[in-house]
Specification:
Elements lengths: L1 H38 L3 E5 L5 E4 L1 H7 L3 H4 L10 H16 L4 E4 L5 E4 L5 E13 L2 E10 L1 H45 L4 H30 L7 E2 L2 H11 L1 H7 L2 E3 L8 E2 L1 H18 L5 E8 L4 E7 L7 H6 L18 H11 L4 E4 L9 E7 L8
Parallel strand pairs: 8-10
Antiparallel strand pairs: 1-2, 1-6, 3-5, 4-5, 5-6, 7-9, 10-11, 11-13, 12-13
Helix pairs in contact: 5-6, 6-11, 7-9, 9-11
Length: 386
């Protein structure tokens, strides 16, 4: 009998211990949840089905300027400009009826919040919902993007100023530079100068051509952002040949050898821009390739209706760290390999992305194996005529 009582007592203790462990785990999870709420920089706000605030974390206090006790039980509308309240309420109703558990807010337009002091601010937010005791609970995670929007506006302003500056400078410099290059080329062809003076003349020609490239790139930089062009089938063989003709002086100076593809796929693009892309890639390959430079040009058809065009050089290659910033504006390679990269490649990226493609560079960083610069364009229909 005693044994039965002992067994009965033990069996009664087991569920109690399990319940205590469950409660301890629940308290631990609750503590973790509270700590996350407290350290989060984002505003985390929960509302009930009547859109009354039931949770307002410290991040929300900092962003909106209210203390939690001031807003608990209040309508969420106090955090919104009056002109957005009705639309937001409709959004919550639609979200309640949808099958989605989480949804971004303001995918087509920015969210605007309202601080306690009446100041409006731009925000990014997402909303989630869950069912608790037959009631919907909604939680909004919101981030103040005032600084980000200000930085974007400042960047856009600087870009506009750069466009204006580029157009003005290139327009004012191009005519006198062409005059200088014309007279210098005439002297080079007809005058018989001593070697010392001929060296100076050659230096003037090289510097003038570099400046001409910079001016052309500045004009292109200003034009690509705003131009509206129609994509047409391209005769890539002709475009590559014209790009090489532009660099004849450079090919001869560096004793470069260029191996062209036997044939080129037909793609869609804008011929003057793509000629500029090839000219930049070829110029970079010649200047930063081996001595003498050896370049191979080719094209590879990809899945998804795209074609990758590439230029492979025999230079020292490019480190992984350098590749990350190579196509960013005014990011030179290093002190030795600065020329030819600072302005041209960012323009190449703008052109190719405007035409619906992407740029890339591949290099294993091993000396002598070189680098492969590439860009992609959409393949034209098989019936396309060039």
């Amino acid at each position: 009998m005693k044994r039965n009582n002992h067994t009965h007592g033990y069996s009664s203790i087991v569920p109690v211990m399990a319940k205590e462990r469950e409660m301890a785990s629940l308290r631990e999870n609750q503590a973790h949840f509270v700590s996350i709420l407290e350290i989060a920089h984002e505003a985390i706000i929960s509302i009930d089905e009547r859109q009354r605030i039931t949770l307002f974390n410290r991040g929300a206090e900092k962003i909106f300027g209210y203390m939690a006790e001031e807003v608990m039980g209040q309508s969420l509308s106090i955090l919104l400009p009056i002109r957005f309240v009705e639309r937001h309420q409709e959004h919550i109703v639609q979200f309640t009826q949808s099958s989605a558990g989480t949804q971004l807010m303001g995918e087509r337009e920015s969210i605007t919040g309202l601080r306690k002091n009446g100041e409006e601010f731009p925000a990014e937010a997402s909303i989630s919902k869950f069912r608790f005791e037959n009631r919907w609970i909604f939680t909004v995670v919101l981030r103040d993007v005032t600084s980000q929007k200000a930085a974007e506006a400042e960047q856009e302003k600087l870009i506009q100023e750069l466009d204006s500056f580029s157009h003005s400078v290139s327009h004012n410099l191009k005519a006198p530079l062409q005059l200088i290059l014309g007279y210098t080329a005439l002297l080079d062809e007809q005058a018989r100068l001593p070697d010392s003076l001929q060296a100076y003349l050659d230096a003037i020609l090289r510097s003038g051509r570099k400046m001409q490239n910079i001016i052309d790139e500045l004009q292109l930089l200003a034009g690509v952002r705003h131009a509206h062009i129609e994509l047409k089938p391209l005769n890539m063989g002709r475009i590559v040949a014209e790009a090489q003709d532009r660099l004849t002086y450079m090919i001869e100076e560096y004793n470069a050898k260029i191996e062209n593809a036997p044939q080129w796929p037909i793609v869609l693009g804008h011929a003057p821009w793509i000629e500029e892309v090839w000219a930049n890639y070829l110029r970079n390959g010649i200047k930063n390739g081996g001595r003498p430079p050896r370049l191979r040009l080719g094209a590879t058809t990809l899945s998804g209706g795209m074609v990758r065009f590439w230029v492979r050089d025999n230079g020292p290659g490019i480190s992984p760290d350098t590749k990350q910033s190579l196509f960013k504006p005014f990011s030179p390679l290093d002190q030795v390999r600065t020329e030819g990269y600072g302005l041209g490649l960012p323009i190449v990226r703008q052109i190719v992305e405007k035409l619906g493609g992407q740029v890339d560079v591949h290099s294993d960083g091993i000396a002598g194996r070189g680098a492969t610069f590439s860009f992609t364009l959409k393949q034209a229909d098989s019936s396309a005529v060039i």
